[in-house]
Protein 1
Amino acid sequence: MIREDNPVEAYRGRFAPTPSGRLHLGSLLAALASWLEARAHRGRWLVRIEDIDPPREVPGAAADILASLQACGMPPDEPVWYQSQRAPAYEAALAELLARGLAFRCPCSRSDLEPSAGVHRGPCRPSDRDRTPAIRLRVPAGRIGFVDRIQGLFEQDLAAEVGDFVLKRADGLYAYQLAVVVDDAAQAITDVVRGADLIDSTPRQILLQRCLGLPTPRYAHVPVLLDGDGRKLAKSAGDAAVCGADPLPELRRLLGFLGQPEPGAGSLEAFLAEAAGQWEIGSVPRRRGLPVAG
Ligand code: GLU
């Protein structure tokens, strides 16, 4: 466990976008918050492209996201990782979980799980035992909780609410939950700052960390930006890309959403340095979503 009282632990944060579209205001908010937190701790800030789902990937999106971060004055401190190159690490984690009986091969189809509303609990009841199996984590009874640095205590009864969840799909794709846990540990991430739409993935990730004997980072979930219909701004929905020739107006606006005072500085570099100097995670609104007016 990473402890607040461990001053030796070097802060390592990350931004982990899925390349399903260009960087939009909502994802830039998560990037900015995690970058400011890392800078305020004099830590390192990493970028990891979560390209494990080829059907969702948009060609050129990864390069575009990286160029936008650069244009916004937030280049990563270390070489970028690509999850598409990490299959051996995910396979090693799966092999360990299977060998220890913590994960299992599951031939159940979606329709087999209909009676339990899509939730897999306990023994498999496949209509076809020969179907190519997925790999699921065996989820034990009990609540898993953590104290989020922005949202406060968050708890889930994973067995009841989520069930035995998928780590590798029958079609061979690795699940986000597995890849993110393996890579956060492999990159020695101490602090995850990301959008609050992912808060209910966190107990699954903590359980998986425990199963694999990996440390649990600290978590802070920032509010997600909502459009006029109360929906999350989404890159795949074609929301306008950000960080053009002059990213300052957008960054100013985002700092306002994050409850931070507005820096006076004029140049991008000075602006970001001032924002990092006065960054207070405690001022970020304790909300899951924030409407973006206009
Ligand atoms: N790849 C995820 C996304 O773009 C974020 C993963 C994370 O920050 O844990 O929504």
Protein 2
Amino acid sequence: MFKHFLLFFLMLLNLSATPATAATTPSFSDYNQPPIVHQGGVNQNGRLQVIGTQLCNADGQPVVLRGMSSHGLQWYGQFTSAQAMANTAEYGANVFRLAMYTAEGGYLSQPGLKETVKNGVNAAIQNDMYVIIDWHILSDGNPMTHLEEAKAFFKEMAQLYKDTPNVIYEICNEPNNVSWAGEVRPYAEAVTAAIRAEDEQALILIGSPTWSQDVHLAAANPLPEHNLMYTCHFYAGTHGEWLRQRVDEALQAGLPIFFSEWGVSRADGGGGVFLDEAEKWLQFMNQRGLSWCGWSLCDKNESSAALNPGVSPNEPWTEQQLSEAGRFIFSHFKD
Ligand code: IDC
């Protein structure tokens, strides 16, 4: 605790000093000046890399990715069509997340979902978007339970996509009821090694215990590796200031953070919507040059869903077809 206060104090001193000069490696002290945002897609930015805590493009310039996450591919895979992605790209999205649930009728009982993932990657390529392949553990909270399946899956994906700069790997959506040191970190080491054996440079996103909110645990004991980012997830109706503080402390400690999932609803996907709190979060991420994906691109009748029930994934959308969540999230892609 004392260490955090000390770091915070040092940071304040730094912020009040002259602005950071020609920093090639953005750091926490640059946050009083939002990094230059290079929206743009894969053609413009190329292979991503992590410098300090900042996501950067192939030239080492800061880049921010913003876009949508799919809902579970086993239920709403149709919203990963090229047209659905084009509809979000039109509002400024440059990333799409493919949430491949493992349980609840997902990949472990339906391996054919791999084809939905591949089609989704192709749709993202057509739209010049980055694309996150997400091993969406949720009710199956311990990632170690299916370590072998995860290693085989990511090895295959990395073999396929090692020359495709669009692809980002998210290896465990939301671990829960597990520890960082005992389960999540060893899992991340093993799966990262499996990906790295095929693709040295791939950008890999790693979750943390308590539904990817325990970034402080990852910050205290990160993996000694390059091009890794750690995910943090929030829902505006449930998570507030305390989690923003935790993220700031983790960034300060040098942990690169990616908000691969957030919603305007409560954490159960319903309720609200909580747009005032969501606005605070967006400002927070914006000021720190952090990338994000909104939950979720589907027409389910729940407040986190971006589309009204019955909207087609194969046609352009009018503003009226977006739900309140969708209108709000889409309007922030270009912030
Ligand atoms: C929710 C869906 C909901 C579904 C439920 C269980 O919105 O329709 O019934 O999962 O499968 C997460 C998860 C994400 C959740 C979302 C909202 O990553 O899968 O989706 N959420 O509850 N973490 C925090 C919230």
Protein 3
Amino acid sequence: MEEPRLGIPKLGPVIAIDGPAGTGKSTATRRLADRLGFVHIDTGALYRAIAWLVLERMKVVPGNDFAAVAMDIAGQVHLEFRRQATKNPANRVFANGQDVTDYIRTPEVTMTASQVSSIPQVRASLLGLQRRLGCQGKSILEGRDIGTVVFPDADVKFFLNASVDERAKRRLIELEAAGSDAPSFEEVRSQIEARDRIDSTRAVAPLKKASDSIEVDTSQMTLDQVVDTMEKWVNSRIK
Ligand code: DC
């Protein structure tokens, strides 16, 4: 069920982009935001920042209850995005004043982010922040539950999808390009399936397509085709 209207004044249109990992969502969203002059808000980075803090705390105090640590951190942490033109990526994530951008893309953080994001209290802690960020002006929010929970009133909603095989293929290419010890195709595929399972079966705000979102299957599309398709939809919906 979708949540009622927001109660925060929106200073510009909001575009919601949801979908599973490996659909090209992040890159497509970044490009679309640049073309349209919208601010790109990567909500997954917020869950990842919390996951990184949880892992750091668990290293210092092992044996603590994972969920309790995650809820404690999510309830207190100060998260923000800052643009730093000289860095790559320029859009940096700060947790309690520390730039954590370079730490939050490891496989360990990726798996932990999926676990912390299935804790309802963690999701609740991030809801207000995501809404405030999105209400500040022309925004594109990218995540799993933007069109269903965070911005049920978004001006345009997209759900990007692709076959598991295609997503695994893309992920493998990324890993090889990054020079990491690439796992096998089967391993990558089963990691993606495991993440999908956690993301789409959690009790609160599971990954699912909003009834009024535009589904784009990117399996057979180039990045440019995906961005062009979304841009056309946006231009037809937002005047
Ligand atoms: O998009 P990503 O892979 O960076 O997201 C990291 C994790 O956070 C992923 O497991 C899904 C979760 N997530 C979520 O539950 N809700 C969001 N709005 C964004 C991400």
